[in-house]
Amino acid sequence: MGQEDLMNKAEDVADQFLRVTKQYLPHLARLCLISTFLEDGIRMWFQWNEQRDYIEATWNCGYFLATCFVLLNLLGQLGGCVLILSRNFVQYACFGLFGIIALQTVAYSILWDLKFLMR
């Protein structure tokens, strides 16, 4: 009987925990899903000049186009994160973040870096 009582107690504790945290878990799950985009957007904000200079040097596209690319990348990532966390236009935000991934794959030449893709 001791093992059954222990299992019942564990189920009660788990049930109580889920009742208390039930309203926060969906938000936490969304935050975990978009954490990479959030981190990349914040890093891009703090490394603005380095990002712009890298795109300008790699693609020889000029200061203006490099700035537009970094701005699009930054706003796309942070805007998509905000929309997903606020549960507004989630489907469009996910498509936008997927587009950012595709854009970065080409712009940063990730598509041809097998070592990076394997990670």
Automatic annotation (TrEMBL):
Compartment(s) of residence: Endoplasmic reticulum membrane
Membrane-spanning segments: 63-85, 92-111
InterPro entries for this protein: Surf1/Surf4, Surf4
Main location: endoplasmic reticulum
Pfam annotation, one family: SURF4
Mode of membrane association: Multi-pass membrane protein
Top-level taxon of the source organism: Eukaryota
Keywords: Endoplasmic reticulum, Membrane, Protein transport, Transmembrane, Transmembrane helix, Transport
PANTHER family named in the record: SURFEIT LOCUS PROTEIN (PTHR23427), SURFEIT LOCUS PROTEIN 4 (PTHR23427:SF1)
Family: Belongs to the SURF4 family.
Name of the protein this chain belongs to: Surfeit locus protein 4
